[in-house]
Amino acid sequence: QVQLVESGGGLAQPGGSLRLSCAASGRTFSNYGMGWFRRAPRKEREFVATINRSGGTTSYADSVKGRFTISRDNAKNTVYLQMNSLKPEDTAVYYCAASVYGSVLYRANDYNYWGQGTQVTVSS
């Protein structure tokens, strides 16, 4: 069992930045592939970014590519999402997720554990 707790959400202005963190506890964090997803009001949950167990491979949704960066610190059992050049359409609840497969993964169904989510609001 893995427990995930997100933090770092809040209110940002358009063009601003936020860094989300996801702290994991439980089984060996470095075995898990990790991902970030988001759900905007009245929209389906969507993939944002993913990173493999070692941190050597990452992948992003086209909507955030070049603006967001996913990273992980296996010594701290934490995965991060650095969000720059934020846009109002980035407003959503952001969730981190862990997968036993360990690789980069794009589908929510491939993830076994989920955090409770953290709200990100981008508004002037």
Write structural notes for this entry.
The protein is an all-beta fold and 124 residues long. The protein is 0% helix and 49% strand. It has strands spanning 2-7, 10-12, 18-26, 33-39, 46-51, 58-60, 68-73, 78-83, 92-99, 113-114, 118-122. The strands form 2 sheets. Strands 2, 4, 5, 6, 9, 10 and 11 form a 7-stranded mixed beta sheet that branches. Strands 1-3-8-7 form a 4-stranded antiparallel beta sheet, with no helix packed on it. A hairpin with a 6-residue loop joins β5 (46-51) and β6. The protein is globular and about 40 Å long. The mean pLDDT is 96.
Short summary:
The protein is mainly β and 124 residues long. It is 0% helix and 49% strand.
Strand content: over 45%
Helices, by number, come to 0
From the alpha carbons, calculate the radius of gyration and give it in angstroms. 13 Å
Q: Percentage of helical residues? A: under 10%
Largest sheet: 7 strands, mixed
Mean pLDDT: 96
Number of strands: 11
- Low-confidence segments, given as residue ranges, are none
- Given helix and strand content, the structural type is mainly beta
C-alpha geometry: globular
The N- to C-terminal Cα distance equals 40 Å
N-to-C series of helices and strands? EEEEEEEEEEE
